[in-house]
Write a structure and sequence with these properties.
It contains ten helices and no strands. It has about 200 residues and is an all-alpha fold. It has one domain: Orthogonal Bundle (Tetracycline Repressor, domain 2), CATH 1.10.357.
């Protein structure tokens, strides 16, 4: 039952947002009593925390599976983007922003976890890209890894990029183009052209 509660909660939180979904909503969706949920999670905050870490673990597992395939580093970044978009579903709910605003302690813990994962992921992606001649050999790997993380999380702020004006998939495509144009070689640019419409 506990796993099913987490699964249903994750679906609702990602589609509607952490603040918007109530314990009653989850109970109704599952066809159980709210008391049953409280048997496993004594407060909504504890449920949000458990669900957030489960979502994070699912993301980590999926990204690591993509990385294990040892694909072209540029292809890898676009596949990671597609995977996370398919998992995080409704960008209009701004689940990350709601988590940061209403559950800041949980958000900070998730962000620390995410930073460790992405720092390692992007750092290795950059090193592999340099070795393959796709990225310039002079790029500052540690600096770019941190900038990638900051911008990648920052574009999900609905106050800066209102979802009614900016589709998250388009934002992520623009971000990847922005990131890659700054570091690719002429060889890397040819791979990039396969993913975006550019004339130069």
């Amino acid at each position: 039952m506990k796993d099913q509660i987490l699964k249903t909660s994750a679906e609702l939180f990602l589609n509607l947002g952490f603040k918007s979904v109530t314990m009653d909503d989850i109970a109704q969706k599952m066809g159980i009593s709210k008391k049953t949920i409280y048997t496993h999670f004594s407060t909504k905050t504890k449920l949000v925390e458990a669900t957030s870490f489960q979502i994070m673990e699912t993301i980590n597992t999926g990204i690591n599976e993509i990385r294990r395939q040892d694909k072209n580093p540029i292809v890898e970044l676009f596949e990671i983007k597609s995977f996370t978009m398919s998992l995080l579903k409704n960008e209009k709910a701004s689940p990350q922003y709601q988590l940061e605003k209403y559950y800041p302690k949980i958000y900070r813990a998730i962000k620390t976890n995410q930073f460790a994962l992405m720092g390692n992921c992007i750092g290795q992606n950059l090193e592999r890209g340099i070795s393959a001649g796709l990225y310039r050999s002079t790029i500052p790997v540690d600096f770019i890894s941190k900038i990638y993380f900051l911008v990648g999380t920052g574009i999900k702020d609905p106050e800066i990029f209102p979802p009614e004006k900016f589709a998250m998939n388009d934002l992520l495509d623009l971000f990847l183009e922005y990131h890659l144009r700054a570091i690719v070689t002429s060889k890397g640019l040819e791979t990039l052209k396969e993913f975006i419409n550019i004339e130069d």
